[in-house]
Amino acid sequence: MKRFVLIEQLLKDKGIRLTTQRRLVVRRAVSHLHFTAEELVADVRAIEPSVARGTVYRVLILLHEAGVLEKHDFWHGPPYYEVTFGKAHHDHLMCVQCGEIIEFQEPRWERLQEEVVKQHGYQLLSHTHKLYGLCERCQHVDPKRASKPPHLHVEEVVA
Amino acid sequence: MKRFVLIEQLLKDKGIRLTTQRRLVVRRAVSHLHFTAEELVADVRAIEPSVARGTVYRVLILLHEAGVLEKHDFWHGPPYYEVTFGKAHHDHLMCVQCGEIIEFQEPRWERLQEEVVKQHGYQLLSHTHKLYGLCERCQHVDPKRASKPPHLHVEEVVA
DNA sequence: TTCGCTGCAAAGCTTTTGCAGTGGT
DNA sequence: ACCACTGCAAAAGCTTTGCAGCGAA
């Protein structure tokens, strides 16, 4: 079953109307690993130029409230969004100096999470785990000389 | 040893000048559990009205790059900042519907983190772990009827 | 038919930045 | 005495919102 179908069902079950625009935004969002809000707007408009910026942002909020969208603020540039539903969770390790981001998976965390959440009577929908530190290179570089606004370098670690 | 003294030393070691303004901002930041950037600006200005907004924001970036400041974006309202240095780490459980936030600690995570970070040659500075879900109340409430923009309710869980 | 959703465009908020002057080291 | 840092204020950047008309259920 396609991910976007399940997500659309999820929204429908919440009593949310599935308009043409919403379907399109959801499908484009699901098709990317990461995206900024403006990237998604551009992507959607490449297909249907009439879709308003506000509509895209409103869908992002819906997806967040449905628990299938995460927002990552990495301080360098605008926040990144990511549809987590139906994907293996992965977490992030970021260098606070140069902004490099490494993604990784750690299955042992999953069990602990369930425990904690149940203790508080919550129903778990998604999670983010970020580690901040200095990458090998930046540990050996004079901080004053370090490149400040780098491009977002993402190493994918696929299961 | 006071936390702000250690942080000031940390900045000094990076070759950053300790101005009167920076010392003040650091000390006020450390004195709060959580704060928004604007709250910190107001707090600092209550003591020294001449301090510019830009200066406060610039200190936040320095603290982030030193790995002692975390930024939490909870989608409801502006992001919260938190000085993590010298504190027991705590993580967050958030209701995506009403925005309630519960803080908790989970010592068993710490060991796993160190492992992962070393694998990638990183030096760990701090971390954030957020779990998103539905709180007990919102699980039983019609989503359409749910209160959208709630106040930030934080339950402190102290060790 | 109803009322939630959309497009449009402006407003809102947080954060960043350029520049001339100031102050830490 | 350098040159990093500050205050100021404007600009930038991302996101939200009001409203009139539209369309999903």
Say what oligomer this is: homodimer
Strand content of chain A: 15-25%
Given helix and strand content, the structural type of chain A is alpha/beta
> What's the architecture of chain A in CATH terms?
2-Layer Sandwich
Q: Assign the CATH topology of chain A.
A: Dna Ligase, domain 1
Distance between the termini of chain A: 20 Å
- What is the β-strand count of chain A? 6
Strand order of the largest sheet of chain A: 5-3-4-6
Provide the CATH top-level class of chain A. Answer: Alpha Beta
Main sheet characteristics of chain A: 4 strands, mixed
Unreliable stretches of chain A (pLDDT < 50, length at least 5) are 144-159
For the largest interface, the chains and their residue counts are: A-B, 46 and 46 residues
Q: Helices and strands of chain A, in N-to-C order? A: HHHHEEEEHEHE
Note the overall shape of chain A: flat
Average pLDDT of chain A, rounded to a whole number, is 84
Computed over alpha carbons, the radius of gyration of chain A is 18 Å
Describe the structure.
The structure is a homodimer of 159-residue chains. Chain A is an alpha/beta fold. Chain A contains 6 helices and 6 strands. In chain A, strands 5-3-4-6 form a 4-stranded mixed β-sheet. The interface between A and B is large, with 46 and 46 residues. The structure holds a DNA duplex (25 and 25 nucleotides).
Topology:
Two copies of one chain form a homodimer.
Chain A: H1 3-13, H2 20-30, H3 37-47, H4 53-65, E1 69-72, E2 80-83, E3 91-95, E4 101-104, H5 108-119, E5 123-134, H6 136-139, E6 154-155
Parallel strand pairs in A: 3-5, 4-6
Antiparallel strand pairs in A: 1-2, 3-4
Helix pairs in contact in A: 1-2, 2-3, 2-4, 3-4
The first copy, chain A, binds a DNA duplex (25 and 25 nucleotides) through helix 2 and helix 4.
